[in-house]
Amino acid sequence: MIYLDYQATTPLAPEAREAMMPWLAGPDAPGFANPHSPHRAGRAAAAVVEVARQQVAALLPAGGRVIFTSGATEALNLAIFGSGARRLAVSAIEHAAVLDTARAADPGVALLPVDPQGLVDAQAPLPAGADLVAVMQVNNEIGTIQPVADLARRARAQGALFLCDAVQGAGKIAPPQDADLIAISAHKLYGPKGIGALWVRDGIELKSLIHGGGQEGGLRSGTLSPALCAGFGAAAALCARLGESDAAHVDRLWTRARAALAGWTLNGSDTARWHGNLNLRLAGLDVARLLSECRNVAFSAGSACASGSGRPSHVLRAIGLSDRDTKTAIRLGFGRYTREEDLDEGVAAIIAAARSQGVALPWSESPS
Amino acid sequence: MPAEPLYLDHAATTPLLPQARAALAQGFDAWANPSSPHKPGRAARALLEGARARVKAALAWEYEAVFTSGASEALALAIGRAQVERAKVERVLVSAVEHEAVLRPAGADAARLPVDAHGLVDLAALAAVLAGGPRTLVCVQQVNSETGVIQPLADIAALVRAAGGILLADAAQGAGKIALPDADLIALSAHKFGGPIGIGALLIRDFALLEAPGGQERGYRGGTENMPAALAMAAALEAGAGWMVEARRLRDLLDGQLQAAGAEIIASAAPRCPTIGGYRMPGVSSAAQLIRFDSAGIAVSAGSACSSGSLRPSHVLSAMGLDAKAAGEVLRVSIGCETDEAAIARFIAAWRDIAGSARA
């Protein structure tokens, strides 16, 4: 199986798995305690949680605190509902975890459009009276990198909070600057599923959504898992260490795949983009058939959550594609553990399957 | 030389069972996103749904189950979304001895049902409050986390249903140990029965009882599913509760010997889960006891892990009528499947030692 779906989830880094193991211990080892217990074993678990918090914080801006959650979805819910915001403005290409939550908080939420390159205009007018603006850092479907620092500064200048869903960018590119709230997820940066974080700028007060024992400074009750925290922390530390080589590797893969698929049309900007995301379309392509014919290649049409729903992608529509064209797009995602030969083989399988539909350009043909 | 650690705080969290650790490893190897429609995604989905079926089978629960990040989230979901005949509940009743994870989301407006000196919900008071109106969500835990007291949930369920209400049971301490209670919504947490921290479930008798906010888990819970943890939760439940017989013997041993040494057993006359016992050492504050036990290498707690160290008097013991001084002298001992008689003997010896030196 060739895995080309790094936006859905990433393989667990061996280092992250290793870091979790001591905290998945049985009764003969000390590493299983409740980090909120004041006894010795509990204090050791709490120490691991705090080390992990520092490791995760290193991927995020200075001047804020890291609140661990069960994932980015919970972090985004905490940011939106916890802020008490009533009037929201979000980009048209946000993930459902932002769009649906924003609609629940404000049925009249304003959508900020994107251009055909899949970018929000940094100078786009922000609705007056909005008290929370959310724009993602890297889009999950087409990989475009949004001008979040400019938008954040402008949102804050007019008195709104700025929330950034940095799930796809965290650990890969520099964190968004000037945001008030940033949500990230461990399993998109080679960490475990079941943990994420909300970064909260110092001085910003939120209301909690999950009540109980008052963990995480009262913002998020529930026993923290030292194992998940340790795995997240190790994955974050690895991203910090390997950031440059990961990006160089991804750029090499991108160049290879782009060359092989030269006749396909790129969705979204070529340059303002995380190159681990290659979203392409080909006129006349039957994507459902392509997916079923490439059984040995795991890739997707759109996001994992919406995949299989049959709805046209709201992101591809937002960049101006017709409903018919949105259904001819595929997303290839690759990263640290993708080998060049695997990518080549996966791409070759996709080209062969497309060609058998009678729509693909011969891959030796030069781009038109 | 520091004493070898002895862990008697299983109500806070339990060691991970080897079966659960193996299941996690299996889950880590199938790391794809269960919502992805490609082959590895479908494999992860199959494991997730297999885990759900296994959890239900192990608990003998034939209705619905959604995975959450733990009991706190399951309780917040249940209390925030419960509905009767597809309309939001009109009021919430909670027992006075619920965990903060119930009391907080229920809100300050929620009426509190008193408990008697044994820690048991006053059924007459419940009936009286229920008579005041329909569309009520009643929240009563199965097993108290500080005293081990088991609530009469079958009787409570009958009263609640007769009045047209719905019953939520926080089964965090009882699930995987004693049979599930009779309730419409049941919250549980894997790390209290040998599973990993970071996963729990809400059991739902009928999806009509809960408004769906949207997302994964049948629309009840957005977020990529933590499939490895779900597998480990199933494995931990399947390991079974055969050790309850031994737990009962050990708890009775603790009760008898500590009482002989001058302890007061909390709620000794009530039905109690054998895994949790509350013991008062008259004249010695629980804070002082904790320091002594900790330096002897013994991990126990005063109240729940979350409130332990806060030095607030326990709302559970207060509700049972203990005054602040008495409540402040109680420790919780909670045992797990690996606890043996030698561990109990060591704890009893340390208890005698601490009580004796306080009197000297």
Describe the structure.
The complex is a heterodimer of chains A (368) and B (360). Chain A has two domains: 14-238, 3-Layer(aba) Sandwich (Aspartate Aminotransferase, domain 2); 243-356, Alpha-Beta Complex (Aspartate Aminotransferase, domain 1), CATH 3.90.1150. In chain A, helix 1 (14-20) packs antiparallel against helix 6 (226-260). In chain A, the strands form three sheets. Chain A has a seven-stranded mixed beta sheet with strand order 2-8-7-6-5-3-4, with helices on both faces. In chain A, strands 9-10-12 form a three-stranded antiparallel beta sheet, covered by helices on one side. Chain A has helices spanning 14-20, 40-57, 72-83, 96-105, 148-157, 226-260, 287-293, 314-318, 323-326, 340-356; strands at 2-3, 64-69, 88-91, 110-112, 132-134, 161-165, 181-185, 196-201, 265-266, 277-281, 297-298, 329-333. Chain A is built from ten helices and twelve strands. Chain B folds into two domains: 6-15 and 242-359, Alpha-Beta Complex (Aspartate Aminotransferase, domain 1); 18-238, Aspartate Aminotransferase, domain 2 (3-Layer(aba) Sandwich). In chain B, the strands form four sheets. A seven-stranded mixed beta sheet of chain B has the order 2-10-9-8-7-5-6, sandwiched between helices. The longest helix of chain B has 21 residues, at 39-59. Chain B is globular. Chain B starts with 5 loop residues before the first strand and ends with a helix. The model of chain B has no long low-confidence stretch (mean pLDDT 93). At the A-B interface, helix 2, helix 3, helix 4, helix 6 and strand 11 of A face helix 1, helix 2, helix 3, helix 4 and helix 8 of B.
